[in-house]
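TL;DR need structure tokens for one chain.
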Amino acid sequence: MSIRVDYEDVKKTVKQAFLNLGLTEEQAETCAVIHTQSSADGVESHGLNRIPRFAEYVQKGWINLEGQPQLTGAKGAVENYDGQLGIGITNALFCADRAVELAKEHGIGCVALRNTTHWMRGGTYAWKMAEAGFMGLSWINTESCMPLWGSDKPSVGNNPFCIAIPREDGPVVLDMAMSQYAYGKLGVYRLGGKQLPYPGGFDKEGNLTSDPGAIEDSRRILPTGYWKGSGMALALDMAAALMANGNCGTDMDEQDKGSCTGCCQIFIAYDPYLFGSREEIQAMLNRRIAAANAAHPEREGGSVTYPGQRTVLTREKSMREGVAIDEAIWKQVCALAAGDMDTTDIASR
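>> reply
TL;DR here they are.
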């Protein structure tokens, strides 16, 4: 069951949970903001829902709370960092900021990060680059969690990809996994007792299904666009590992240390006004969005939105009415904040 909790109360509780896990004041504040913002934006699967698993990984030593990005190489507008298995959020924020700084100098900036941990909501970093006035691209490779097209066993990551367009009247931000639904989203629907709006994978008998629990059990999530999403996932995996000189998905499979432990991430920032004025670029973006919003809806009374448009509306509602949180997840986070529950007990739930 979903409940609504005041934004500041959520952030305060999450921060205390992180402090109890051993994060510094600065780390806890930063991570609390990102997790709370993600849930407030309607991406609870990678907001509060991820906190119990983060707690488990800290306890197991899979996340190095002292790890920070270390520069390993640089050439022009490109830099390579080793994340030292540090906190995924703080590592990724550093790299997104660094990509923007490089783009300010060179017009484009690219930061490749290896040996890091789960960045939680991937769109966080694309939004950040767009809000700084730059087009942002970012993606991650993961351990195998999705079958390649033609296979019935996990053999590639769902490798989320993000792109943000810095439109001043509202950024356009696409944040998508290469699976029709990420596992976190399956969990949201399962916890809510709901079926998926569209088939999202196969059950253990090989039947296409909209039952999130059945897909979680089979581990046969459906690639977005069938063979196209499968191929894109494989290409993104290899591209990230190549650019960062780090682990590919197969390497993470062999390490077997949880979701995205030791992964690679890429952050690219691009100055939108390299070859056009602010006025003409923004006018073009507004024309395109106006046409998209004016697209004829399939149902009477419906509307067509651009990527990121509903996010803003959800954020406004969360700030006004409280952040929507699954009650069971909230109890676990509150227990962590109170320090009266062992993280292994929480992670097993």
